[in-house]
Amino acid sequence: GPCTECSCSSGKDPDKDPSHTKKKENGDQSCVPKIFFGTRTHKQITQISRELKRTAYSCVPMTILSSRDYTCIHPVVSNSSNRNEMCVELLEGKQGKSCSFYHGVHKLSEHHALQPVPRAWDIEDLVSLGRKLRACPYFAARELMVGADIVFCPYNYLLDPQIRDSMDIKLKDQVVILDEAHNIEDCARESVSYGVTESQLRAAREELDVMVSNSIRQKHHEPLRAVCCSLI
């Protein structure tokens, strides 16, 4: 039979549907939990959203959280190797410039194509619509999370506390699904690993040599130099 708790049963806005909330004895409202669906790669999210379109829940409000690498449409920032830093600088107006796409986020998040309709969407759909409306898909996806019943994202958005905080993801009392969870161990290992080349180590050692020879914070730089030497 049809579900009674989520918004797909009535087609109503989840924020306005009285069946979407339950009263506690103390008078507080407790929302029906969101479903956070984590995958290893962005490509898998596309596959999952494609399958969602084939189900009776294709009309459920959803969003996809992804990095600027996949959703930035700014002509300069999107072609940069440090998209995150450039995006932040634009939003803070450090160079006297701003991002017109960011200021058009509401046009994308409120667009009828992303409202509860009988069709799920994927990252490519969001980016395509963002280019058409000249609105930022990255921040629109984050805004859509507020009213979404299902949130798709890579593993690290759920596992890394820093990313959770930056994306304002609250997992308490929510439903978390990890696709192919046997990959979690590798994902966790990668998130706390860092790779350096021999040339980078030699360059670091040379800089530390200068610091030590000029008596600049020797007690801190000498141990670091010893580590570089031992690794080399």
Automatic annotation (TrEMBL):
Residues 1-27 are annotated as: Disordered. Gene3D superfamilies: P-loop containing nucleotide triphosphate hydrolases. Residues 12-27 have a biased composition (Basic and acidic residues). This is FANCJ protein. GO terms for molecular function: ATP binding; DNA binding; DNA helicase activity; hydrolase activity, acting on acid anhydrides, in phosphorus-containing anhydrides. Pfam families: DEAD_2. The gene is Brip1. Signal peptide: none annotated. Keywords: ATP-binding, Hydrolase, Nucleotide-binding. GO terms for biological process: double-strand break repair involved in meiotic recombination; nucleotide-excision repair. Residues 1-228 form the Helicase ATP-binding domain. InterPro entries: DinG/Rad3-like, Helic_SF1/SF2_ATP-bd_DinG/Rad3, Helicase-like_DEXD_c2, P-loop_NTPase, RAD3-like_helicase_DEAD. One of its GO terms (cellular component) is nucleus.
